[in-house]
Design brief:
Elements: H1 3-13, H2 17-36, E1 43-47, E2 63-68, H3 71-83, E3 89-93, E4 106-112, H4 121-131, E5 132-143, H5 149-158, H6 162-165, H7 173-180, E6 186-190, E7 196-202, H8 222-234
Length: 235
């Protein structure tokens, strides 16, 4: 999968995304937002907001930023925001693997049905960590490869079609946690047959250490120090 194939696939999905995935994924969206326990004036980032199906579920007092790579999906989200008068929501077209937000911009960052869609999940998680405040919440809801041998066999058969169907059916939970260095604090099944999982972790990325300030009044260059010593000896 690459960015071009993702954009192409979701351009094709956009007109019927709500019909295909609205009701099926709704329990997971609802469970995620309940789990987040959003507070008044918190800044929340939803990565891969799509057509904005989750947006009406957030508290009106929480400030929501939604990003998506697909302008066609975002156009439908914008219509939903206008129709439902969601004044607490702002939307931007953006690559989740290379966000333009400053460090520590959000209290909580959520990715719903995104981790198995992006070309590089490690870059996605690293960017989520960067823009989330230390101690903030990172939450995912996603399909992961089944442990059932028959279902797993079918998923593996579909992996070569990932670019066509828009996600990686063989996406491994254990590999995701290992490669992204995630310590999952909460993990439970959601949606039909519990085929998807909700994961929550605390952002452990610490702020970058600032360079110590140099006191110009007390610091001398080696050349000046040597000169002072020479003068002292002459005395």
């Amino acid at each position: 999968m690459n960015l071009e194939s993702v954009e192409k696939t979701y351009r094709r999905y956009a007109p019927r995304y709500d019909l295909l995935f609205g009701a099926v994924f709704h329990p997971g969206r609802k469970a995620v937002i309940q789990r987040m326990s959003c507070q008044a004036d918190e800044q929340v980032l939803e990565v891969g907001v799509g057509t904005g199906l989750s947006l009406p579920l957030y508290p009106a007092t929480t400030q929501i930023t939604g990003i998506d790579l697909s302008k066609e999906m975002l156009a439908r989200a914008e219509k939903r925001v206008a129709r439902d008068r969601l004044d607490n929501v702002r939307l931007q077209q953006m690559n989740a693997q290379e966000m333009t937000f400053p460090d520590n911009s959000f209290d909580k960052v959520v990715a719903m049905y995104v981790a198995s869609v992006v070309p590089d999940p490690v870059k996605l998680v690293n960017e989520m960590r960067r823009v989330c405040k230390p101690g903030g919440q990172l939450i995912f809801v996603n399909h992961f490869q089944s442990d059932h041998p028959v279902i797993k066999w079918v998923e593996n058969l579909l992996v070569p079609l990932s670019a066509k169907i828009g996600f990686n059916p063989g996406f491994s939970l254990s590999a995701f946690k290992r490669e992204c260095d995630l310590e999952i604090e909460h993990n439970h099944r959601v949606n039909l047959f519990g085929y998807w999982r909700l994961l929550q972790t605390t952002n452990d990325l610490q702020p970058k250490d600032e360079e110590p300030a140099v006191d110009a009044t007390t610091t001398q260059s080696p050349e000046l120090e040597s000169f002072d010593v020479a003068v002292a000896k002459m005395r």
